[in-house]
């Protein structure tokens, strides 16, 4: 009987959470048509014998992307065709760093991108509902040689699919830290794309650069991101494991009291900002069990508290408000 009561309670809490997440958007909001360009499929077909023809075809099909890819990923001038014909096949088929095997795995993992397209379509529909004047980007999927997960191509976004092959992919041990691997999964792409989009379209506007200002700026965007993906668990939106999120929630009051007691919120030196905002295995200043980016996590909860305690406020008003002190005071945040 206790188990049944507990199950009903969890279900009730879950329903409340879903209700809170959906109250800002119409229930019948139609998904946006997000175009995904499969540059990855074309890139992996380039070979040494037909390099000139293959590269011309790539430029014909994806001119904007190829200019950025050649300069930013290959580090080559776009006008040096002879050099490009030599270096691109070598880059794609390199065996020392496992690019050849990686590109083969990428083709299997990303045989279909319907799931990514559907998730992005629903998320961008919510973004478009709030900001109808913003242009929805085209998403280019490509192989980056472990160089870039997200790359801007003008107003569009390119995704290095080879950095989303699964947390257990063998070559990741050679190129990234272990703590980064948990978010190197195909299902992480939609939230990463929309996160990059929101940070670009909602620039930092505070006149100050204290920890308080930085954490609320980032926290507001993470809160909005969670509303754009109501189907995702909050820890997934944040890029935390379930254990990391649970630890932060359990120790939320203690973390907040420590930040207040040490007056960390009002510091603006690089060391303090890096300690509480940068990614890493943990937040050493607090505990080796405390996940990194903990100030952003707190900022998210302050933003959430602000909206809950100011029901007349809109999401657009929250995002536009640059006075961090005003948000904090009116959030009545008390963990």
By DSSP (H or I, 4+ residues per run), the number of helices equals: 17
Strands, count: 4
- The N- to C-terminal Cα distance equals 32 Å
Query: Mean of the pLDDT scores?
Result: 92
User: Which strands sit side by side, in order, in the main sheet?
Assistant: 1-2-4-3
Unreliable stretches covering 5 or more consecutive residues: 1-19
SSE order and pairing:
Elements: H1 2-22, E1 36-38, H2 39-43, H3 51-61, H4 63-73, H5 81-92, H6 99-109, H7 114-130, E2 139-142, E3 150-153, E4 156-160, H8 172-175, H9 189-201, H10 211-228, H11 234-238, H12 242-250, H13 252-261, H14 270-277, H15 294-309, H16 315-320, H17 324-331
Describe the structure.
- By secondary structure, this protein is mainly alpha-helical.
- Helix content is 55%, strand content 5%.
- The chain has helices spanning 2-22, 39-43, 51-61, 63-73, 81-92, 99-109, 114-130, 172-175, 189-201, 211-228, 234-238, 242-250, 252-261, 270-277, 294-309, 315-320, 324-331; strands at 36-38, 139-142, 150-153, 156-160.
- It has a 4-stranded mixed β-sheet.
- Helix 9 packs across helix 10 (211-228), helix 10 packs across helix 15 and helix 15 packs across helix 17 (324-331).
- The longest helix has 21 residues, at 2-22.
- The chain is globular.
- Mean pLDDT is 92; it is low at 1-19.
């Amino acid at each position: 009987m206790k188990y049944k009561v507990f199950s009903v309670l969890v279900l009730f809490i879950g329903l409340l959470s879903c209700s809170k997440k959906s109250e800002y958007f119409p229930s019948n909001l139609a998904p946006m048509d997000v175009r995904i360009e499969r540059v990855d499929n074309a890139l992996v077909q380039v070979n040494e014998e037909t390099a000139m023809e293959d590269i011309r075809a790539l430029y014909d099909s994806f001119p904007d992307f190829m200019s950025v890819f050649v300069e930013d990923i290959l580090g080559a001038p776009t006008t040096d065709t002879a050099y490009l014909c030599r270096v691109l096949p070598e880059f794609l088929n390199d065996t020392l760093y496992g690019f050849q095997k990686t590109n083969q795995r990428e083709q299997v993992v990303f045989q279909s991108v319907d799931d990514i397209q559907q998730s992005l379509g629903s998320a961008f529909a919510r973004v478009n509902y709030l900001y109808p004047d913003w242009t929805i980007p085209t998403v280019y999927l490509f192989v980056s040689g472990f160089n870039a997960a997200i790359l801007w191509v003008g107003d569009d976004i390119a995704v290095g699919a080879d950095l989303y092959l699964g947390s257990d992919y063998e070559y990741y041990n050679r190129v990234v830290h272990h703590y980064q691997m948990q978010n190197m999964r195909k299902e992480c792409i939609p939230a990463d794309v929309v996160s990059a989009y929101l940070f670009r379209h909602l620039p930092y506007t505070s006149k100050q650069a204290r920890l308080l200002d930085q954490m609320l700026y980032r926290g507001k965007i993470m809160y909005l991101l969670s509303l754009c993906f109501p189907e995702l668990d909050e820890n997934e939106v944040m890029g935390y494991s379930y254990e990391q999120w649970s630890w932060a929630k359990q120790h939320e009051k203690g973390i907040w009291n420590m930040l207040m007691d040490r007056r960390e919120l009002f510091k603006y030196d690089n060391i303090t900002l890096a300690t509480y905002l940068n990614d890493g295995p943990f937040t050493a200043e607090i505990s080796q069990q405390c996940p990194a980016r903990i100030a952003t996590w707190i900022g998210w909860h302050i933003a959430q508290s602000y909206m809950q305690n100011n029901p007349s406020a809109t999401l657009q008003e929250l995002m536009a408000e640059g006075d961090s002190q005003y948000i904090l005071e009116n959030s009545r945040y008390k963990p």
